[in-house]
Amino acid sequence: MLTSHLSAIVAAALSAGPTTTPDASMLRYPDIGREDIVFVYAGNLWLVPKTGGMARPLTSAAG
Questions:
Q1: Which position among 15, 45, 50, 58 has the lowest Cβ density within 10 Å, counted as fewest Cβ atoms?
Q2: Whole-prediction pTM
């Protein structure tokens, strides 16, 4: 079950943008809730539904 959730995180990170080539090693600290998964990617918090779909950023680090 955890493997399928982590797969959803990787898929969400890969869908971050058409011009972005994400580095999966930048995925950190996944936390699985009742309905969503929150994770850190490139220093920002992201939220994705456990059922899959597009991840949306919750924060934006200055940079």
A1: 58
A2: 0.60
